[in-house]
Prior knowledge:
Structural class: mainly alpha
Number of domains: 2
Mean pLDDT: 89
Number of strands: 8
Radius of gyration: 26 Å
Distance between the termini: 76 Å
Helix content: 55-70%
Amino acid sequence: MKSSGIWAPLRTRLSAQAWLLLAICAWLACTAWARPLMLPDEGRYVGVAWEMLRSGNWLTPTLDGMPFFHKPPLFYWLTAASLWLFGAAEWAARLASLAGATAAAYALYRFTLRWTSRRSARAVLVVLATHPMFFLGAQFANLDMLVAACITLTILLLADSVFRAERGEPFRLALAGAWASAAAGLMAKGLIGVALPMLVVGPWLIATGRLRLLPRLLWPPAVGLFLALTLPWFLAMQARYPQFYDYFFVVQHFKRFAAGGFNNVQPFWFYPVVLAVLSLPWLAWGIGRWRRGTRNREGRGLRALMAWWVFSVVMFFSVPQSKLVGYILPAVPPLAWLIGEAATRLRLASARARKAWAVTAIVAVMLDLGVVAAVALHEPSPAQALAPVLAHERVAGQPVFFLRNYLYDLPFYAHLTGPVFVVDQWADSSVQQHDNWRKELADAGQFGNSGQLVEASRFKLALCGSPVSWVFGSEGDAQAFSFQASESVAAADSLRMWRVDRDSPAWAAILACPVAPGAASPVEPNPMVQ
């Protein structure tokens, strides 16, 4: 009774819905701390957010100090804010994805609760929250879950506005939320944040005889809200970088969608197979049962919306040759709705079906946790293993060099407060021929601060610029550059870390740093790309 008295005020303050929201978040976040950042995606995107935080430049995303315009800044803003609040921890680095997944799951529950039944809403929430792809995506620090959540919110709020308008109920608050969510989607990953909701809702309105409601969805104040939330950043970037629009929209959107030459080329049927496999064990509850449904207009409209939503997203992402599993995340919420709604009807049939449902949920939970545990057992990347040594031994201001590789996660784990130098054959035309870290850095260097990219022929000269430098590379890299004067300070797998003391006899003989006439110390060169 005493314990009950202690918690009673808290229960009074928090509604049942708030507790549900907290429960969703707690489940999705329960293993977000359990594994290191994965490469390249988590290291890259968290690294950009880390740079935003340590540089204080919250307007322009940067990769190794150079403007990085592959994607808009919303993920970086949220992640940098999380790192500022909670420190440089893996779970804090994943908070943007966790927040997006929590919002999407809760929104789907509330939408289903309003337009179907509490039983269906609970079933849909269980399916979505334990769906392996959704659970893992919620704990992966890249842009896919965040934009999938924005797309989900946009579509659900637009559909809610349509149903409310049909009933003569107030709908403009929901409509404003839809346009705000679309703005967030645009700022999360670009045009797909707007294109996919249009692709889903537009044909659905036509197919269900609701096209007459389209003008209401284009309510000028809501459209104005969308523009107010998106235009300032795009205008600011174009003002600072005249080539921004061409690179961001033409290269990173249209060319990536239509052209080949990018990584992860997969056949057209890749996504249907992936979505089916990753929907186990829940998929069995929907197979053969989706044709049975309610006869009322709203019920048919809901089922049509969800079915078209899944189909259109899968087909949209199946067109490009480049395919990554995370791209298909926007199709998971409507698929979970279809499965949950079908399973609700089946569970009402018998006690045996209800037991089978419970078993399926347990299997899904065990599968989710098992995959995370399996990944967590893998050893951290070599850069993660060496980062604590660098953080302990290095004095602030001493430059760091990466040889023939960009170690995305090392700046985050070593808490570096400035960019590093990356040594490679940057003048070689092959740099632009492959969609990899080299092209990312070379593209970023075109917008400014390309001094971080050191041509291989100037590497030794660049080491002359500081009394002490730190170099990361393999033994093969050291031999290729003929710079190794002693054993590495530390090593992890094939990665080595050297402390280069310019003034020591051994290093001085190898570097042969030039000395200005009348000077007592070597000339400090400018390691610019040449």
